[in-house]
Amino acid sequence: MFRPYHPGRAPDRLSRRFFRYLSLVSLLFWVASALAGDVKPIPKAGACPPGYYSSGKYCVPRKSANPVIEKHGACPPGYYSNGNYCVGRDNAKDVVEKLGACPPGYYSNGNYCVARK
User: Fold this and answer.
1) For residues 54 and 8, what is the distance between their CA atoms, to the nearest angstrom?
2) Do 61 and 51 touch, CB atoms closer than 8 A?
């Protein structure tokens, strides 16, 4: 990782390889935190779903919580029913409530628009 000191040449404190490694690790942490940031507090509609705790008028996700959407009819693929919510499984895709035609990259499924990817 570090280059040895060579007389007659200015010593590098950190090598290029170390900076590349540091940049890659930083990028991976950034991507992981961006992906993990999808789970957010939701308005409370009865008992909170698994992985969430009650805080005032909200259900707040715990660290291990899966995504949750408010239930409007049958749950979309990748989600299961729990009270007034649809709880995402590990393979759940992004879902939004259907308000007309689905946006690009989504397909219609009951009362929801489900991401294709």
Assistant:
1) 66
2) yes
Q: Retrieve residue 101's tokens.
A: 């035609």
The Cα–Cα gap between 61 and 105 comes to 27
Torsion angle (degrees, nearest 10) of CA 76, 61, 48, 68: -10
Asked whether 98 and 112 are in contact (CB, 8 A), the reply is: yes
Residue type, 2: F
- Name residue 17's amino acid: R
**9-63: per-residue pLDDT in tens?**
554 654 556 545 434 434 333 333 334 456 899 999 999 999 999 999 999 999 9
Q: Which of 94, 89, 76, 87 is nearest to 37 (CA)?
A: 94
Locate all alpha helices (DSSP H) within the chain, ordered by sequence: 16-36
Find, among 8, 62, 19, 7, the residue nearest to 39 by Cα. 62
- The DSSP output letter for 107 is E
